[in-house]
């Protein structure tokens, strides 16, 4: 994808309604008070800008992507280096830095340029996955010195990139003050990604991965997001995202705070098991989150500073999210900030110049004529030279590390780390320990020192844990690199569990997880209190996956640690203690015989009926497990979200669990059977004795003859699309009449308007918050211009010489549900499918509005534009 999600945009098409900024040199209305926006580079230089990054010294690196989200042809992408020699806000020089396809993220540090991009086979011309690579420009000529050096290979799913394109692939990258590169992994996930050390890793679904700048120590940071596109990282290493939505389930854009080791639940825990996840901080409605940045620059106005800035492609808006501390996490309030047509990315330099890239209707396969870059600065801004850090003395670097600029601190930190000498190490420690310095400066000192001292820094970092102001960060730095844990003591983390600060408590749990000392850690982790909010959603009710719940964070992290430590013995031993709730929560993920036998033994001797019920719930959860992921299955626009597994299989202990559950059900008789029936359905155990015949209520669906409708010729059908769009701009239309037309023209056969309705094709209940009237009109008149994700025609051939064509309404590991253009629904068993092919045409045929007058079409468009649920 070009840093946006088709699933969010539904029927989104190119932004004809937006005039190119370059036809009107200045648009003051775009600039919030106190800021000035100038046009930096136009489509003649930067068409289809998918991503950008700015060097601290001000050079702008733009990822041009003429493949777009759905294109399949290689050789259409490049990284450009743009310069503003006289600092007037307009590019006056550029070079082709490197050729890469589908650039998705860029970081510039010194003479290194890190790029995330799609790779193609020279032999076949087909995509082979995505790589994180680094280029170098040591001679400073604006061009990469040589070929890219891979840091991580295959960090997206080759199968789905080939079939679909990059719209849900791996995307934005950003470096934190801790020196890690944080990578936003879309819900394609990846299989057998390999880093420079040879380490392999697989991720089913999306999340955040991180890696060192040399391409080693790759690890999962968080898991369970749908289509995260970029991260905003604050000076204290808080990570924020604005995630994409899903048109199949009505799940909207979410704003999340990512806490290391956290599980965010998409898709299998997202509806029915939300008690087990870290929820998002807000449900923001329709949209499509793209680039992200935490603004922390001294010359920016206070009202726009020290905030996550998050781009939303679908809403053509850069948002500010004002975050407020809430225990170990935050709450938030979002505000519209800068409007820019299909904004894709943003970054800031060391002089405070913010650059934004606009896709501006470049389409789903890129365009040579659309897209541009703008510069945003405070109105009273004046250029201040940012130094070449390689030429600075250690004293000057020390001053820069003490600055109140995130860009400056990171540049100074990375240069000190690169020098890797005693003097650099000493000054970093001195800054970390200086209680007179601001906290963000001391944090920068701690992480710089940790990177320089490595295993030799343990003693000094332990000493810093005695300083309450920086305890949290010293603890985090102690276990930040797993390769340097040998001499790290456990005591500071055990003490941290007793700390009054929930943030210290949280990093202590994470540290115990990473230390791996199960015998010392398990018992104290099990003592973590579980709040009353730890409650499973009621049957048939979607859980609160986007409602802040700071109370769940600590027990959630403790469970993730216990599972990672494989602390089965301690969990089983705690079943009949005051720590039973946390122990049973953690045991849900322990697929081993010791856990199963321990649960059964405790059940047999338990006297507390509530406890016995919870043990049965835990055993039912363990009856199946997720099959090992081999990259041949998984992704879809409407993934099965029932949970608790996506593609479940029985395992060695399943017969033991089944036998025990049947015995207990028999003992409880007819009156107790419903409990086991509900367990069977909730956990999809498929135990025949607990199954009930599913009665599907007959639903009268409208049968629409779309061929007849589209062949009727009215005013619209006799006019050019340009004339129709001009007329629509002048006619308001009647939304009441528009609803009637929505029904009569067949729209209702494939589109739902209410979240309570069963989802069919792309959800129309919030289309007005995503598209303007002109965009809606064009999507009706030219449905093939951009096929909404999940609405492409699919041809399936199945056993029995059967053929089906429609769009996928629902898909699980066991079945595919297709809806055809007449509204008929077919359920096809997965095992019966012989072939499946996605066609390159929309299920929505052209001509459905041909019989309408201009006024009628205007009424339909107005009605849809008012759908903003």
From TrEMBL:
What Gene3D superfamilies does the record tag this protein with? Cytochrome c-like domain, Leucine-rich Repeat Variant, TolB, C-terminal domain
Cell cycle listed as a keyword: no
Signal peptide boundaries: none
| Keyword Metal-binding in record | yes
Name listed for the protein in its UniProt record: Putative heme-binding domain-containing protein
Q: Where is the Cytochrome c domain?
A: 733-868
GO molecular function: any one? electron transfer activity
- Keywords, A to Z? Heme, Iron, Metal-binding
Top-level division of the source organism's lineage: Bacteria
Cross-referenced PROSITE patterns, in alphabetical order? Answer: CYTC
């Amino acid at each position: 994808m070009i840093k946006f999600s088709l699933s969010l945009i539904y029927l989104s098409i190119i932004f004809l309604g937006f005039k190119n900024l370059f036809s009107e040199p200045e648009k003051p209305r775009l600039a919030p008070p106190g800021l000035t926006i100038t046009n930096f580079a136009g489509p003649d230089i930067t068409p289809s800008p998918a991503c950008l990054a700015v060097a601290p010294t001000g050079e702008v690196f733009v990822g041009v992507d003429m493949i777009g989200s759905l294109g399949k042809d290689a050789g259409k992408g490049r990284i450009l280096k743009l310069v503003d020699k006289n600092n007037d806000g307009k590019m006056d020089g550029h070079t082709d830095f490197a050729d890469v396809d589908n650039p998705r993220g860029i970081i510039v540090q010194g003479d290194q340029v890190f790029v995330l991009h799609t790779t193609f086979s020279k032999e076949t011309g087909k995509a082979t996955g995505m790589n994180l690579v680094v280029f170098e420009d040591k001679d400073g000529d604006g061009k990469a010195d040589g070929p890219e050096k891979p840091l991580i290979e295959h960090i997206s799913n080759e199968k789905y990139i080939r079939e679909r394109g990059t719209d849900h692939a791996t995307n934005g990258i950003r470096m934190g003050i801790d020196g890690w590169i944080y990578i936003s992994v879309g819900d394609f996930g990846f299989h057998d990604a390999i880093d420079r050390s040879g380490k392999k890793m697989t991720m089913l679904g999306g999340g955040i991965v991180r890696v060192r700048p040399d391409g080693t120590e790759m690890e999962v940071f968080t898991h369970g997001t749908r289509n995260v596109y970029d991260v905003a990282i604050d000076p204290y290493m808080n990570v924020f995202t604005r995630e994409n939505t899903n048109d199949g389930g009505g799940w909207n854009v979410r704003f999340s705070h990512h806490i290391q080791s956290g599980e965010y639940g998409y898709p299998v825990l997202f509806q029915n098991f939300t008690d087990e996840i870290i929820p998002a901080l807000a449900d923001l409605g329709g949209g499509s989150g793209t680039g992200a940045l935490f603004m922390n620059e001294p010359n920016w106005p206070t009202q726009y500073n020290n905030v996550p800035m998050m781009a939303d492609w679908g809403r053509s808006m850069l948002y500010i999210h004002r975050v407020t501390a809430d225990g170990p996490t935050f709450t938030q309030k979002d505000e519209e900030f800068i409007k820019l047509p299909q904004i894709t990315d943003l970054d800031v330099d060391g002089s405070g110049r913010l650059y934004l890239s606009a896709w501006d209707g470049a389409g789903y396969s890129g365009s040579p004529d659309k897209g541009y870059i703008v510069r945003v600065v405070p109105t009273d801004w004046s250029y201040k030279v940012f130094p070449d850090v390689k030429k600075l003395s250690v004293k000057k670097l020390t001053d820069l590390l003490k600055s109140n600029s995130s860009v400056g601190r990171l540049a100074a930190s990375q240069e000190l780390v690169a020098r890797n000498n005693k003097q650099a190490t000493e000054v970093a420690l001195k800054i970390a320990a200086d209680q007179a310095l601001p906290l963000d400066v001391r944090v920068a000192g701690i992480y710089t020192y940790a990177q320089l001292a490595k295993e030799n820094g343990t003693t000094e970092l332990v000493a810093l844990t005695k300083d309450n102001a920086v305890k949290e960060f010293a603890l985090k730095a102690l276990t930040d690199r797993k390769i340097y844990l040998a001499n790290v003591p456990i005591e500071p983390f055990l003490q941290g569990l007793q700390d009054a600060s929930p943030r210290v408590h949280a990093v202590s749990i994470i540290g115990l997880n990473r230390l791996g000392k199960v015998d010392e850690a398990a018992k104290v982790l099990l003592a973590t209190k579980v709040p009353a909010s730890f409650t499973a959603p009621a049957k048939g009710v979607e859980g609160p996956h986007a409602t802040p719940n700071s109370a769940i964070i600590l027990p959630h992290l403790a469970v993730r640690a216990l599972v990672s430590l494989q602390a089965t013995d301690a969990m089983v031993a705690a079943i009949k203690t005051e720590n039973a709730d946390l122990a049973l929560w953690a045991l849900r993920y322990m697929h081993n015989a010791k856990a199963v036998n321990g649960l059964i033994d405790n059940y047999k001797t338990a006297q507390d009926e509530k406890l016995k019920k919870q043990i049965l719930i835990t055993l039912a959860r363990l009856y199946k497990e997720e099959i090992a992921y081999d990259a041949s299955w998984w992704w879809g626009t409407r993934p099965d979200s029932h949970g608790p597994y996506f593609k479940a299989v029985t395992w060695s202990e399943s017969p033991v669990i089944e036998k025990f559950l049947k015995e207990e059900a028999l003992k409880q008789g007819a009156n107790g059977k419903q409990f086991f029936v509900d367990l069977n359905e909730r956990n999809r155990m498929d135990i025949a004795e607990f199954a009930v015949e599913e009665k599907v209520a007959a639903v009268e669906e409208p049968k629409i003859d779309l061929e007849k409708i589209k062949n009727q010729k009215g005013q619209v059908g006799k006019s050019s699309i340009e004339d129709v769009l001009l007329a629509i701009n002048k006619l308001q239309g009647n939304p009441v009449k528009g609803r009637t037309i929505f029904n009569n023209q067949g729209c209702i056969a494939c589109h739902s308007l209410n979240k309570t309705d069963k989802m069919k094709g792309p959800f129309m209940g919030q289309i007005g918050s995503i598209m303007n009237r002109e965009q809606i009109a064009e999507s009706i008149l030219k449905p093939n211009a951009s096929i909404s994700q999940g609405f492409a025609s699919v041809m399936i051939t199945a056993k029995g010489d059967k053929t089906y064509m429609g769009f996928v309404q629902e898909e699980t590991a066991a079945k595919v549900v297709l809806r055809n253009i007449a509204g008929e629904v077919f359920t096809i068993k997965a095992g019966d499918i012989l072939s499946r092919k996605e066609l390159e045409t929309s299920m929505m045929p052209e001509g459905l509005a041909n019989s309408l007058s201009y006024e009628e079409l205007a009424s339909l468009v107005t009605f849809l534009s008012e759908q903003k649920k």
